[in-house]
Amino acid sequence: MTTTTLPPYSLATLLPADVTPISTAPLFYHSDNAEMIAESGWNSSTQSLFERYRGKVCCLTDWYGEIPLYADDTTSMCCMLYAWVRNPDANADESVRFLPIMVQCHEQPRYGYTPVRGHHVSCTAFQCDASVKERAEFLVWWKNVWAVQTAAAMGKNFKENYLAQLRKSWQDTVSPKPVKGSKWRVKAGRKYPHGKVGMMFWDGKTRFGHAIGLAWSDKRDANGKFTDVGFINPANVEYVPNDTDQHILNNLVEDSKQADRLCDERTKQVLALLMRYPPIGDTPNPHARVSASGITMEIGGQR
Q1: In this structure, how many other beta carbons lie within 10 angstroms of the beta carbon of residue 52?
Q2: Which of 59, 154, 172, 230 could crosslink 84 through cysteines, CB 3.0-4.6 Å?
């Protein structure tokens, strides 16, 4: 049995919309082993950040995701460590009183196309080394400001994405590509009365450009060809939904009414997640005995 000190971390740091943490396994853990740290993406830039924020880190959080790393915009799966520090601008807005600074980035091998937390756990020399009072203030800010604002923003983003999908489905339904047998209504032009409806039977080019042929009635000649017809620019007609299309449109209207409810549910879901982290005590107390290096956990075997 080996005792390893893990810094406070969060599964929700800068969470993209709709991302659910895969597990509670941390991607980084504190270590004094210089060789192991060096293998985890530590370089001169990281060392500079380490020195700059020594004694100022209120919380360490990590995130695993796909980011562009190279000049050709190719991406790679990386685990990133963020150090939360007080904003040096004393006049900064309350929403940014503390800032997440990416202090370490470790490129990870892929496991298929799914991010897998807990594999290739990385080492770091960073610690939550700010004063207990500073960390307690950070926790109050995290739960009362950052978590609330972040959850609201993610709920709004979810709603916008949800409605965008409904709008696309609506547009695809009311403005499909012209196909034979579909009905179209004249909406523009001077050749035919506006509102006149015909069934499409032809699509091609005339000497005036692209056009569709519409049969205004079912009148046919001896060979079965439509006789009561017109040829019109597709830009001058609009699709007439059939019964199936209308059913889809009605369902989309009903689905749109759920947007606010779904937004609220997602906001509450994200907020509940964020309120669980950072795990440095549920009741902020400047006099509480909080380990400067984080939470001590006993894990079996070597990592």
Answers
A1: 12
A2: 59
Q: Please give the DSSP secondary-structure letter assigned to residue 226.
A: B
Query: Biggest alpha carbon distance in the chain?
Result: 98
Q: Which of 2-6, 30-34, 215-219, 292-296 has the lowest mean pLDDT?
A: 292-296
Size (the chain), residues: 303
Q: Which residue type sits at 92?
A: A
Which residues, at least 6 apart from 170, have a Cβ–Cβ distance to it below 8 Å? Answer: 249, 252
Distance of CA 97 to the CA centre of its chain: 24
Distance separating the N- and C-terminal Cα atoms of the chain: 11
**pTM of the complete model:** 0.65
Of the pLDDT bands very low, low, confident and very high (cuts 50, 70, 90), residue 174 is confident
* Local structure of 107: helix, strand or coil: strand
Buried b / exposed e over 67-103, threshold 16 CB at 10 Å, is eeeeeeeeeebbbbbbbbbbeeeeeeeeeebbebeeb
